[in-house]
Design brief:
The complex is a heterodimer of chains A (252) and B (370).
Chain A lengths: L3 E6 L5 H7 L2 H10 L1 E5 L11 E7 L5 H12 L1 E7 L1 H5 L11 H8 L23 E3 L6 H13 L10 H8 L4 H5 L15 H4 L16 H10 L4 H8 L4 H6 L6
Parallel strand pairs in A: 1-2, 1-3, 3-4, 4-5
Chain B lengths: L2 E4 L2 H9 L3 E8 L2 E6 L10 E6 L2 E6 L16 H4 L3 E9 L5 E4 L8 E6 L1 H15 L6 H8 L2 E5 L10 H4 L11 E6 L4 E6 L2 H8 L4 E2 L2 H14 L13 H6 L6 H8 L5 H5 L6 E7 L5 E8 L9 E2 L2 E2 L4 H20 L9 H4 L7 H16 L1
Parallel strand pairs in B: 2-8, 8-9, 9-10
Antiparallel strand pairs in B: 1-11, 1-12, 2-3, 4-5, 6-7, 6-14, 10-11, 13-14, 15-16
Helix pairs in contact in B: 9-11
The chains are: A alpha/beta (252), B alpha+beta (370).
Bound molecules: iron/sulfur cluster (4 copies).
The site of one iron/sulfur cluster has 10 residues of chain B, from helix 11.
């Protein structure tokens, strides 16, 4: 029996699941190696659990979600979160820093029908997670690497350094040093292949904080190259807002 | 005997005719990078640079000098010691075993046009590390042996340069096939020979004998550049002892408060050589690869042992870099690991300057002594 793969969705935009569908060249091979047992974005056919690997997209934002993720954990041998929502709460975690009640009353015509938790939280805040794949969206070769690693019974080879490593290995001219463009690369987890600087833009931090980032120092520097403090704070308040917020400001 | 070359088109043409891939400085993305030069016209004529810790800007010069800019974003390291190399691939065989294939790649034949004296020394340092010991890296050796080196003496040191205090420039000493000195404003170059291969190449291109006055004038410009270094490494001869005696210095906390542990300094440094290997398998499990890629002592995984990383703090990682580069490199390889190119100062996203850190460590040591 081939291992069973399941894909689940919580509060999210489906982009990470699309990254899986986007693995055009490898999709047939994948389907030959695993039984895709639950992947509603691709097929309405559902095979019963338990599942060998569950890929979970999206954050937990409702009481029903909080229940459902516990069930998924129970029926999954390995649980891998995919993307910034599942790993860090996503852009919707911006509401963690606002008044949810007020939002609910402003946004919805019938707020009483909307069951919501006060915040948007990552999967790891609810159940144990075996591996967290970052990015908004995830990088498909990283996804294939994690699946390949589990199929082979080895540790996924996902490096744990900042974007600058990839940027330099790629031979990109540093946009911050050479152009004065603000870049979050030095404090952002690698994984995208340093795409933005290769196109002359600064890194937006969509893979979330690198391990033990020195946010305080980078924020000071961004100020010194002309960004106002509110702009600096806004730069960190995107797809991984909650993960950046959790980091201490003092050096590693 | 020194010669005068009128422009570099003939030199470039002769190298191409010999089958070399000519690599040299060229303007790209707001910087002077090293890349393949399709013709001598690709050289960055008329571009200069303004450097500061954490800052690099190109600027237009009033002349059309080709080499009046100092070290750029990369060194020659990516060509000799590439960031990623596939070491071998393995395939499962029908009898249940596996086969290992290493690619028999013909190494590129590079001609490096415009190697600065600091970078020339750096290539020597890297050679010592990569092929000078008991376990030479053969792929590096093949790339290196095939390379033809045309050095260019420095007449325009940058704000972050300190080759003079490291004893590596501004004049190239050995290790080149040819060395040029640009006669700025004239479009001509003084060429001196370093090897038989260099002499043979020069023999094939149009040139004039350089008279003594021109030669002396050009070399005097180079010598004068030593006094225009933007930086100085304080007391370079005492660095090994300084670092060995500074393991507990308070300065490490100070620099760690600024350091992003982003690894840019080690990646741009022309002598940092560390790599790691990664094994990957594909979805089917029928095919595996072992890949080598650059690593850095700023990476948490660099010191990962069972139980976790040994150097978790930024302080211990910055200390490792500086102590290895300037101190223990002497014990390991018999020289300094720093050649004074200034790249780590410029390309540090928060402008950390190792000459300043060394000065602070020295001051702290002196205070402790008193
Ligand atoms: S462009 Fe950004 S990611 Fe790249 S080296 Fe510079 S700071 Fe790092
Ligand atoms: S330590 Fe810095 S200045 Fe010295 S060789 Fe390396 S990059 Fe150049
Ligand atoms: S300074 Fe760090 S990256 Fe550079 S050679 Fe030494 S240990 Fe390796
Ligand atoms: S010294 Fe600068 S370039 Fe080096 S790791 Fe620290 S912040 Fe990055």
């Amino acid at each position: 029996m081939p291992p069973k793969l399941a894909v689940w969705k919580f509060a999210s935009c489906d982009g990470c699941q699309l990254s899986l569908l986007d693995c055009e060249d490898e999709l047939l091979t994948l389907a030959g190696e695993v039984e895709i047992s639950h992947f509603l974005e691709a097929s309405s056919m559902i095979a019963p659990g338990p599942y060998d690997v569950s890929l979970v997209e999206g954050s937990i934002s409702t009481p029903a979600d909080a229940e459902r993720i516990r069930h998924i954990r129970r029926v999954s041998r390995r649980l891998v979160t995919i993307g910034a929502c599942a790993t860090a709460g996503g852009i919707q975690a911006l509401r963690n820093y606002a008044d949810t009640e007020e939002y609910r009353s402003v946004v919805y015509a019938k707020p009483e029908y909307v069951a919501t938790l006060a915040g948007s939280t990552p999967i790891s805040a609810h159940v144990p997670v075996d591996f967290e794949l970052r990015g908004c969206p995830i990088d498909r070769s990283q996804l294939l690497e994690v699946i390949s690693a589990y199929l082979a019974g080895r540790r996924p080879g996902i490096p744990d350094h900042p974007v600058c490593f990839e940027c330099k290995m790629r031979g990109t001219v540093c946009v911050m040093v050479a152009h004065g463009t603000p870049c979050l690369g030095p404090v952002t987890h690698t994984g995208c292949g340093a795409i933005c600087p290769a196109y002359g833009r600064g890194c937006y931090g969509c893979f979330g904080p690198a391990t033990r980032p020195n946010l305080g120092s980078l924020k000071t520097w961004l100020g010194s190259i002309g960004m106002s403090r509110p702009d600096v704070d806004r730069a960190f308040a995107t797809f991984n807002v909650a993960a950046f917020e959790e980091q201490p400001d003092d050096p590693p | 005997m020194p010669w005068i070359l009128d422009g570099l088109a003939d030199l470039h043409g002769a190298l191409r005719a010999d089958g070399y891939t000519v690599i040299g400085p060229t303007y790209r993305d707001g910087a002077i990078v090293l890349a393949e030069l399709a013709s001598a016209d690709d050289l960055p004529y008329g571009w200069g640079v303004t450097l500061e810790p954490g800052g690099y800007r190109t600027r237009r010069r009033e002349d059309d000098a080709a080499f009046a800019h100092s070290a750029g974003p990369q060194s020659w390291k990516p060509f000799l010691h590439p960031p990623r190399v596939k070491l071998w691939e393995g395939r499962r065989t029908e009898d249940g075993g596996f086969s290992i294939e290493t690619e028999e790649e013909t190494p590129p034949r590079y001609a490096f046009l415009g190697v600065r004296p600091c970078d020339l020394r750096a290539i020597g340092v890297l050679d010592h590390v990569m092929i000078g010991g008991a376990h030479p890296d053969e792929a590096y050796g093949a790339r290196r042996t095939g390379a033809f080196i045309i050095a260019v003496n420095c007449t325009e040191p940058g704000e972050t340069c300190f080759c003079a205090s490291m004893g590596t420039g501004p004049r190239a000493d050995t290790g080149y096939d040819l060395v040029l000195t640009e006669l700025i404003g004239e479009g001509r170059f003084l060429a001196e020979v370093g090897t038989g291969a260099g002499a043979a190449l020069l023999d094939r291109i149009p040139r004039e004998e350089a008279d003594e006055a021109v030669t002396e004038g050009a070399l005097a410009e180079v010598a004068a550049a030593a006094d225009r270094m933007g930086r100085e490494m304080p007391e370079p001869e005492g660095l090994r002892d300084l670092l060995a005696g500074s393991l507990d210095a308070a300065r490490w906390d100070d620099v760690a408060s600024r350091c992003l542990t982003c690894g840019n300094c080690t990646m741009v440094c022309p002598t940092c050589f560390c790599t790691t290997v990664e094994d990957v398998t594909d979805l089917t499990g029928e095919h595996a690869e072992r890949r080598q890629r650059w690593d850095s002592c700023f990476d948490l995984d660099f010191s990962h042992l069972p139980g976790g990383s040994v150097r978790t703090s930024g302080k211990s990682r910055y200390r490792q870099w500086l102590t290895h580069k300037l101190g223990t490199w002497h014990d390991q390889f018999g020289s300094s690991g720093c050649v004074g190119c200034g790249r780590c100062i410029v390309w540090c996203p928060v402008g950390i300057d190792l000459t300043e850190e060394v000065a602070a460590l020295r001051e702290e040591q002196e205070e402790r002594r008193d």
